[in-house]
Each structure stands twice: as C-alpha cells, then as structure tokens.
Design goal:
The protein has 274 residues and is an alpha/beta fold. It is globular, with a radius of gyration of 21 Å. Helices cover 48% and strands 20% of the residues. Strands 1-2-4-5-6-7-8-9 form an eight-stranded mixed beta barrel, surrounded by six helices. Strand 1 and strand 2 form a beta hairpin. It binds ligand C2E and calcium ion (3 copies).
C-alpha cells in the first residue's frame, strides 16, 4: 500500500534536487557567459509623440548560450538576480553599450535607458561608479537613463541612493509602472524623471471602458506630478493616436521598431532622426 506514496516521494525529492541543480548550473553558465562575452545588447528606439523622431533607445540584453542558443532575458534575469550575478552582468551591459555607441554618432542629448535592478544600488561605491559612467557616456554625446525594475520592493535607502544619481544628471525612470510594488506614497518621497506605463495598460486601449480608465488615471497622475510619461508596447496606430491625444510624450513598441542589433539600429536612426 505504501509503495505508490514512497515512489511519489522519491520522485518529488528528485524533481526538487533537479530543479535546484538546473538553477545553480544556469547561474554557473551566466558567470562564464559574462567572462566569455556571450551577452549582447539590442536596442529599441523610443520616439517622441510630437514628431515621431527617435530621442533615445532602451538597451535590452540577449544571451547567445553555447548550447541552448538565444535565451530571452525573462529566463535568465531572475536567476542572475537570485545569484548575485546581476551586478556584474549590469556592469558588463554598461561597458558593452559604451563600446557599441562609441561606433555611432548620435544627436546630442540622445538617451540610452538601462534596466537596473534595485540590488545594484546596494553597492557601496555606487556614486563613484555612476559618475564614471556619466562622464564616459558624455564623451560620446549620450545621456544615460536608469530604468528601475521593481520586482523587489524599493527600500528607503535605495531610494536615497537613486535620488543621489539625479544630482549627477542621470535620468531615472520607474519601469512597468502599475504592475509592481511601487506605491503612490513612494512616488511622493522619491523624485524621478520618467514613468514607463506597462504594456498591459496600453493593451486596454479600445477595449471596454472600465479597464482603460486605469490607463487614463495613470496618465493623469504623470501630468499632475510632472513626470514624463513613456508608453511601452505600442503595437497599433489606434493605440498611438489615443496616447498622443492624451499627451503621452514618448512611445515605444513594435509599431515603431523592434529591438535591433547595433548595425540595424544605425540604419534605422539614419532614417528616423532629426
Ligand atoms: P521591459 O523592461 O518591460 O522591456 C520591454 C520588453 O517588451 C522587451 O522584452 C521588449 O522587447 C518588449 N517589447 C517592446 N515593444 C513591444 C511590443 O510592441 N509588443 C510586445 N509584445 N513586446 C514589446 P525583452 O527584451 O524580452 O525583455 C523582457 C524583460 O527583461 C524587460 O522588460 C526587463 O524587465 C528585462 N530585461 C531586459 N534586458 C535587461 C537588462 O539589460 N537588465 C535587466 N536587469 N533586465 C533586463
Ligand atoms: Ca525597461
Ligand atoms: Ca518596461
Ligand atoms: Ca513591461
């Protein structure tokens, strides 16, 4: 009678151990992947709703794994975050973008947005690191922008450190606004420049009026608090028209461009800059 239970137990323990192992070996792969430069960046343009011209890009990481092929960030970023590898990975990403953009010439004030996890701000020498980055990007005419992902709660200490970055002239955006842990009271104590409205709200445009009221409320909040609104995941002209009619300043999404490798981006920018 006990045999099926015993088998189920052994199976469950086995599954648990296998999962644990696969997570840790993926973490090992991330570590060696950074050393072997298997990570690269693609860049998605962000256009101004005034004139449709590109004012900057968001840098999005990709992993060319030697066995698994191209791996999407949704899979490895959470593992990097859990295994203390997100800081070295993010530092690698900054260096990679610096190297990439030193090969392009962009309009002055061109912005590159980086996704930075809150853990990054725990580093003790974070201000010196960002001062170096700010200067290095300034030499190639680029203004760095930090998109703060809020999968974890932002602590008061992190907010203080992030606020200090704005004194270095680094732009700060809250990413995926409306989906994470950011509370309205946090927005009151924490000044930032941009608020990126998550795609799930953009998807409600043209749907029933109750869900799209949430979007309208977020846009109003941006206007009232003087944040510049950026809409992400804009896929249709109807969505773009609606957002423009509501004075959303910046738009990002497949309607305008998909994330591109540097050489493709360079051609795209030639056709879409001032
Ligand atoms: P995110 O910051 O919200 O990035 C936007 C994601 O939406 C990107 O997916 C982008 O390719 C996708 N996207 C953009 N426009 C459209 C659209 O019109 N339709 C649809 N369906 N999707 C669109 P991606 O590149 O797979 O990145 C997924 C997430 O992984 C990012 O979400 C971000 O949270 C994280 N991530 C990506 N790169 C980095 C990085 O360098 N560092 C960190 N810490 N996280 C990153
Ligand atoms: Ca982002
Ligand atoms: Ca986002
Ligand atoms: Ca998103």
């Amino acid at each position: 009678i006990l045999l099926p239970f015993l088998l189920a137990f052994v199976w469950l323990v086995g599954l648990h151990l296998w999962r644990k192992k696969s997570r840790s070996s993926l973490a090992d792969d991330i570590k060696s992947g950074i050393e072997n430069q298997e990570f690269f960046l693609v860049y998605q343009p962000i256009v101004s709703s005034d004139d449709g011209k590109a004012k900057g890009v968001e840098a999005l990481v990709r992993w060319q794994h030697p066995q698994m092929g191209l791996v999407r960030p949704d899979l490895f970023i959470p593992i990097a975050e859990q295994s203390q590898l997100i800081v070295p990975l993010t530092n690698y990403i900054f260096e990679r973008a610096l190297a990439d953009f030193s090969k392009l010439s962009v309009d002055s004030g061109f912005r590159i947005g980086f996704n930075v996890a809150p853990e990054h701000f725990i580093q003790s020498d974070i201000e010196a690191k960002f001062r170096y980055l700010k200067d290095a990007f300034a030499r190639i005419g680029v203004q760095p922008l930090i998109e703060i992902t809020e999968r974890q709660l932002l602590t008061a200490d992190m907010c203080e450190r992030i606020t200090a970055l704005r004194e270095l002239d680094i732009l700060v955006a809250i990413d995926d606004f409306g989906t994470g842990q950011t509370t309205l009271s946090l927005l009151q104590t924490f000044t930032l420049d941009y608020l990126k409205i998550d795609k799930c709200f953009i998807d409600t445009i043209g749907q029933d009026s109750v869900t799209s009221h949430v979007l309208d409320t977020i846009i109003e909040l941006c206007h009232k608090m003087n944040y510049v609104a950026v809409a992400e995941g804009v896929e249709t002209q109807q969505q773009a028209d609606y957002l423009i009619s509501r004075d959303v300043h910046f738009l990002q999404g497949y309607l305008f461009a998909k994330p591109m490798k540097l050489d493709e981006l360079s051609h795209w920018l030639e056709a879409h800059s001032e």
